[in-house]
Amino acid sequence: MQKLFEGKQTVRMIFSADEIEARVHEIGCDIGKTYSERDHLIVLGVLKGSFIFLADLVRSIPISLQVDFLVTSSYGGNKVSSNELQLLYIPTVDLAGRAVLIVEDIVDSGTTLNALIPLIEAYEPRSIEVCALLHKRVAKIGISPRWVGFDAPNEFLVGYGLDHAEDFRHLPYIASL
Ligand code: IMP
Ligand code: MG
User: Fold this and answer.
1) Whole-model pTM above 0.85?
2) Residue from 80, 103, 106 to probe ligand 1 pocket by mutation (most atoms less than 8 Å from CB)
Protein backbone atom coordinates (compact mmCIF):
# COMPACT_ATOMS: atom_id res chain seq x y z
CA MET A 1 0.00 0.00 0.00
CA GLN A 2 1.05 3.51 -0.78
CA LYS A 3 2.82 5.49 1.94
CA LEU A 4 2.51 9.25 1.78
CA PHE A 5 4.18 11.96 3.77
CA GLU A 6 1.50 14.38 4.97
CA GLY A 7 3.37 17.15 6.75
CA LYS A 8 3.37 15.89 10.31
CA GLN A 9 3.60 12.19 9.63
CA THR A 10 3.45 9.34 7.18
CA VAL A 11 0.05 7.92 6.32
CA ARG A 12 -0.92 4.79 4.38
CA MET A 13 -3.46 5.19 1.61
CA ILE A 14 -6.48 2.89 1.95
CA PHE A 15 -8.97 4.30 -0.59
CA SER A 16 -7.84 6.60 -3.41
CA ALA A 17 -9.67 9.73 -4.53
CA ASP A 18 -10.70 7.97 -7.75
CA GLU A 19 -12.11 4.94 -5.90
CA ILE A 20 -14.06 7.23 -3.58
CA GLU A 21 -15.43 9.31 -6.43
CA ALA A 22 -16.71 6.25 -8.28
CA ARG A 23 -18.30 4.70 -5.21
CA VAL A 24 -19.94 7.95 -4.06
CA HIS A 25 -21.46 8.40 -7.51
CA GLU A 26 -22.80 4.84 -7.42
CA ILE A 27 -24.42 5.37 -4.03
CA GLY A 28 -25.88 8.72 -5.07
CA CYS A 29 -27.56 7.16 -8.10
CA ASP A 30 -28.96 4.34 -5.96
CA ILE A 31 -30.33 6.80 -3.42
CA GLY A 32 -31.97 8.68 -6.28
CA LYS A 33 -33.74 5.49 -7.37
CA THR A 34 -34.86 4.67 -3.83
CA TYR A 35 -36.68 7.91 -3.11
CA SER A 36 -39.25 9.83 -5.09
CA GLU A 37 -40.01 13.53 -5.18
CA ARG A 38 -42.96 12.87 -2.87
CA ASP A 39 -40.59 11.82 -0.06
CA HIS A 40 -39.30 15.40 0.36
CA LEU A 41 -35.85 13.98 1.05
CA ILE A 42 -33.82 15.77 3.67
CA VAL A 43 -30.15 14.84 3.89
CA LEU A 44 -28.61 15.40 7.32
CA GLY A 45 -24.83 15.41 7.43
CA VAL A 46 -23.23 14.59 10.76
CA LEU A 47 -20.57 17.24 11.25
CA LYS A 48 -17.76 17.58 10.95
CA GLY A 49 -16.58 14.28 9.53
CA SER A 50 -19.20 13.96 6.79
CA PHE A 51 -18.73 17.37 5.19
CA ILE A 52 -16.76 16.32 2.12
CA PHE A 53 -18.68 13.06 1.61
CA LEU A 54 -21.98 14.93 1.95
CA ALA A 55 -20.94 17.59 -0.55
CA ASP A 56 -19.97 14.98 -3.16
CA LEU A 57 -22.91 12.68 -2.39
CA VAL A 58 -25.73 15.22 -2.76
CA ARG A 59 -24.35 16.23 -6.15
CA SER A 60 -24.78 12.62 -7.26
CA ILE A 61 -28.39 12.30 -6.11
CA PRO A 62 -30.59 13.10 -9.12
CA ILE A 63 -33.79 14.09 -7.26
CA SER A 64 -34.91 17.14 -5.27
CA LEU A 65 -33.57 17.27 -1.75
CA GLN A 66 -32.67 19.61 1.05
CA VAL A 67 -29.54 19.61 3.20
CA ASP A 68 -29.05 20.29 6.88
CA PHE A 69 -26.65 19.14 9.52
CA LEU A 70 -26.36 17.40 12.85
CA VAL A 71 -23.64 18.29 15.28
CA THR A 72 -22.75 15.80 17.95
CA SER A 73 -20.01 15.96 20.52
CA SER A 74 -16.69 14.81 19.05
CA TYR A 75 -14.02 12.39 20.17
CA GLY A 76 -11.33 15.04 20.18
CA GLY A 77 -7.93 13.43 19.95
CA ASN A 78 -9.01 10.17 21.53
CA LYS A 79 -8.97 7.03 19.46
CA VAL A 80 -11.70 5.28 21.45
CA SER A 81 -15.47 5.62 21.31
CA SER A 82 -17.34 7.47 24.02
CA ASN A 83 -20.68 6.26 25.35
CA GLU A 84 -22.07 9.73 25.65
CA LEU A 85 -23.51 11.67 22.76
CA GLN A 86 -24.73 15.23 22.85
CA LEU A 87 -26.66 16.95 20.10
CA LEU A 88 -25.09 20.39 19.81
CA TYR A 89 -27.09 21.55 16.76
CA ILE A 90 -30.60 20.58 15.71
CA PRO A 91 -31.75 20.97 12.08
CA THR A 92 -33.77 24.11 11.49
CA VAL A 93 -35.83 22.47 8.73
CA ASP A 94 -39.04 20.62 9.65
CA LEU A 95 -38.44 16.86 9.60
CA ALA A 96 -42.04 15.76 10.24
CA GLY A 97 -43.42 13.44 7.55
CA ARG A 98 -40.24 13.58 5.49
CA ALA A 99 -37.69 11.00 4.41
CA VAL A 100 -34.54 11.62 6.45
CA LEU A 101 -31.18 10.38 5.24
CA ILE A 102 -28.43 10.65 7.85
CA VAL A 103 -24.97 10.86 6.32
CA GLU A 104 -22.11 9.66 8.53
CA ASP A 105 -18.41 9.51 7.80
CA ILE A 106 -17.73 6.23 9.56
CA VAL A 107 -19.45 3.67 11.76
CA ASP A 108 -17.08 2.20 14.29
CA SER A 109 -18.73 0.86 17.47
CA GLY A 110 -22.17 2.07 16.34
CA THR A 111 -22.52 4.15 19.50
CA THR A 112 -23.10 7.40 17.65
CA LEU A 113 -25.82 6.04 15.37
CA ASN A 114 -27.59 4.18 18.16
CA ALA A 115 -27.79 7.36 20.18
CA LEU A 116 -28.64 9.55 17.20
CA ILE A 117 -31.57 7.64 15.66
CA PRO A 118 -33.95 7.99 18.64
CA LEU A 119 -33.16 11.70 18.82
CA ILE A 120 -34.22 12.12 15.18
CA GLU A 121 -37.25 9.81 15.54
CA ALA A 122 -38.62 12.32 18.04
CA TYR A 123 -39.20 14.73 15.12
CA GLU A 124 -41.56 12.19 13.51
CA PRO A 125 -40.06 11.82 10.04
CA ARG A 126 -41.70 9.43 7.56
CA SER A 127 -38.53 7.34 7.48
CA ILE A 128 -34.92 7.39 8.64
CA GLU A 129 -32.11 5.76 6.70
CA VAL A 130 -28.36 6.01 7.13
CA CYS A 131 -25.63 6.34 4.55
CA ALA A 132 -22.13 5.82 5.91
CA LEU A 133 -19.01 6.27 3.84
CA LEU A 134 -17.10 3.72 5.90
CA HIS A 135 -18.07 0.83 8.15
CA LYS A 136 -15.59 -0.99 10.35
CA ARG A 137 -18.09 -3.84 10.95
CA VAL A 138 -17.17 -3.76 14.62
CA ALA A 139 -20.73 -3.07 15.76
CA LYS A 140 -22.60 -6.22 16.72
CA ILE A 141 -25.78 -4.47 17.76
CA GLY A 142 -27.96 -1.63 16.66
CA ILE A 143 -29.00 -0.28 13.31
CA SER A 144 -27.00 -0.92 10.18
CA PRO A 145 -26.72 1.74 7.47
CA ARG A 146 -28.75 1.11 4.31
CA TRP A 147 -25.85 2.44 2.25
CA VAL A 148 -22.18 1.86 3.01
CA GLY A 149 -19.38 3.18 0.82
CA PHE A 150 -16.64 0.82 1.89
CA ASP A 151 -15.96 -1.82 4.51
CA ALA A 152 -13.03 -0.38 6.43
CA PRO A 153 -10.14 -2.05 8.22
CA ASN A 154 -10.22 -1.73 12.00
CA GLU A 155 -7.59 0.99 11.96
CA PHE A 156 -7.78 4.69 12.66
CA LEU A 157 -8.65 6.36 9.37
CA VAL A 158 -8.23 9.97 8.26
CA GLY A 159 -8.87 12.07 5.20
CA TYR A 160 -11.89 12.94 3.00
CA GLY A 161 -13.43 14.62 6.05
CA LEU A 162 -12.16 12.28 8.75
CA ASP A 163 -9.74 13.72 11.25
CA HIS A 164 -7.33 12.89 13.97
CA ALA A 165 -7.36 15.78 16.46
CA GLU A 166 -8.68 17.98 13.61
CA ASP A 167 -5.79 17.19 11.28
CA PHE A 168 -5.99 15.45 7.88
CA ARG A 169 -9.64 16.28 7.03
CA HIS A 170 -8.58 17.91 3.76
CA LEU A 171 -6.83 14.87 2.27
CA PRO A 172 -8.59 13.88 -0.98
CA TYR A 173 -8.09 10.18 -0.14
CA ILE A 174 -8.66 7.99 2.93
CA ALA A 175 -5.61 6.84 4.82
CA SER A 176 -4.62 4.91 7.92
CA LEU A 177 -2.38 6.55 10.50
P1 IMP B 1 -18.88 5.04 16.74
O2 IMP B 1 -19.81 5.84 17.61
O3 IMP B 1 -17.93 4.21 17.55
O4 IMP B 1 -19.59 4.22 15.70
O5 IMP B 1 -17.95 6.07 16.01
C6 IMP B 1 -18.46 6.95 15.08
C7 IMP B 1 -17.74 8.27 15.07
O8 IMP B 1 -16.44 8.18 15.62
C9 IMP B 1 -17.57 8.73 13.65
O10 IMP B 1 -18.62 9.58 13.29
C11 IMP B 1 -16.23 9.45 13.69
O12 IMP B 1 -16.43 10.81 13.97
C13 IMP B 1 -15.48 8.80 14.82
N14 IMP B 1 -14.55 7.77 14.32
C15 IMP B 1 -14.66 6.44 14.49
N16 IMP B 1 -13.65 5.79 13.90
C17 IMP B 1 -12.88 6.74 13.33
C18 IMP B 1 -11.69 6.70 12.53
O19 IMP B 1 -11.10 5.65 12.23
N20 IMP B 1 -11.21 7.89 12.11
C21 IMP B 1 -11.82 9.08 12.38
N22 IMP B 1 -12.93 9.16 13.11
C23 IMP B 1 -13.47 8.00 13.59
MG1 MG C 1 -18.42 11.70 13.10
Assistant:
1) yes
2) 106
